[in-house]
Write a structure and sequence with these properties.
Elements (H helix, E strand, L loop, with lengths): L9 H6 L1 H17 L4 H14 L4 H6 L1 H39 L4 H8 L3 H9 L1
Length: about 130
């Protein structure tokens, strides 16, 4: 699998200008979502890319579709991150319960899973 994010696989990016420009666009959307709401971030990234000659023809011709797909994809990416985090926490909770069942002290468990003793106690009661 190839990483096609901006700054990666430079040789490939140099061979495919459209891919390079797409990576720039995606990087801008990601950057701006940390500063503003998703709709505004996508609109700003599109406007800037057009002004700077990045994907100009494609963005002008397909602006509304690009905006819609970008928003849907970013929402999907965010949901997947949220799901992975929840699964990670569920795994930690399984480790807590297993260690408790095996007789480890709550202090040792808290240290092992980087949680407070109160958090460990709460999981052990579940």
């Amino acid at each position: 699998m190839l990483n096609v994010n901006e700054g990666h696989n430079k040789e490939l990016m140099e061979q495919c200008q459209a891919l390079k420009e797409y990576a720039i666009y995606v990087a801008r959307v990601r950057k701006y979502t940390s500063e503003m709401n998703l709709n505004d971030a996508v609109a700003r990234a599109i406007d800037e890319c057009i002004k700077e000659g990045i994907l100009v023809e494609f963005l002008r011709k397909n602006r509304s579709e690009v905006k819609m797909v970008s928003i849907l994809e970013y929402d999907k990416e965010w949901e997947e991150k949220k799901l992975r985090k929840a699964e990670y926490e569920a795994g930690k909770n399984d480790v807590i319960r297993n260690m408790y069942r095996l007789g480890y002290s709550k202090e040792k468990i808290a240290e092992a899973v980087d949680k407070t003793i109160e958090e460990v106690e709460k999981v052990c009661k579940e």
